[in-house]
Amino acid sequence: MEQTRTSRPLRLPTFSLRAGLHPSAATWVLLQQLIVRGLVAVKFLALGRILGPAAIGSISIALLAVAIAESLSDTGLAQAIIQDRDAPTASQLGAVFTTLATRGMCIGLLLAALAPTMFRVFHLRAGEIGLLLLAAAIPFIRGTSSPAYYLVQRERRFQHIAAIEMSAAVADCSVAIASALTGAGVYAALFGTMTGETLKSALTWITMAPRPPLRLAWSGISRYVRFSRWIWAASVVSLLLNQFDKVVVATLLGPAQFGAYQMSSRLAQMLLADAAIAMSQFLFPTFSSQHRQNSQRAKRLFKRYLAVLFCGLVVLVVLLRASATRLFVLVLGKSWIGAVPLFDIFVINMAIGALIAVLVAYLRAVGNPKAATHASIVQMLVLAVTVPLATRYWGATGVAWSITAGLAAATMFMLYRLTRSDQCARCT
């Protein structure tokens, strides 16, 4: 009897360790996030020290153009594949690949055509138009990745995904810093990004199955359109919400001021929002799987994650705001000290954004992506009302606080919709 008692506590750690290292465990998502976002931080912080705020602003403008174009043409096919009850066939994957590759090519050509106009609008320095032309190649490289990547996400093989993402991040960071040190200037960041995306695309074809047929094929794509149209709508609204302030600052203040604005926002995102966004990559397929089996269990799991995340974010926000000045001096140097007041606001914004990431993952998992889109519209209406006055009286700080108000309104709207759906379910 004594032997039985002593054997139980010895088995539990072994089971826990095995569960934590299972290919579908959240451990791999967190490890991926830690390494990938850590390397992104190292890359941009190193480039910030080597190149300065103006160069970071120019780089951010090029990447901003890519983000805007990709958001406007987001198909939502990845989320549709993950959420659908049935796995896609080889022919359906072929249609997805055709759609994504065509999309990437069209975005690249559009960015290349608009490069001279963007060069003037964003006040880039002489010789930096090539930065925009180089950025135009990024969407095409991303579009050539194998859609089997989404099937791997659907099957929750997070270990496989983490290996590919971390390999691409190592290549990106290494090439970018090496290029900057050898005199590539503002082009260093783009060289790194292109290298990482190319490696990722190649690895999706080499290591993931089934491989879609390499031919133009559209048959089967309509299966995912009904769901994905809400993802596209959310992307368009999110574009207006997430990039509006950046476009305003970049066009009115130029690359140098935009560099400081963007770095403070990026640093807050690295410290707060990125972990939740990465966690949503685990939670979306997990919530989807649980919802297919038992909707009540999925609901309990969602509430548990949301409560833990909220408590952790409150602690982090307090600590980061208290140590903001020392953090900037230590990490970026005294030349970046002017960005601290904005950073104090951005940590609040990113904390709310982290909560939104979990809410959106759950809403999409239960087949209600339009609720997230409606929340984004609420956020946009709040910004439309508050931004003009806030910008007039408080400048960039006012814009940042307006974003805080919009994010809070969107969060409350999604929580209201979830509460209302629970009440309706109990009534029926």
Automatic annotation (TrEMBL):
Its main location: membrane. It comes from the Bacteria. InterPro entries: Poly_Biosynth_Transport. It is a multi-pass membrane protein. It is found in: Cell membrane. Keywords: Cell membrane, Membrane, Transmembrane, Transmembrane helix. This is PST family polysaccharide export protein. It comes from Trinickia dinghuensis.
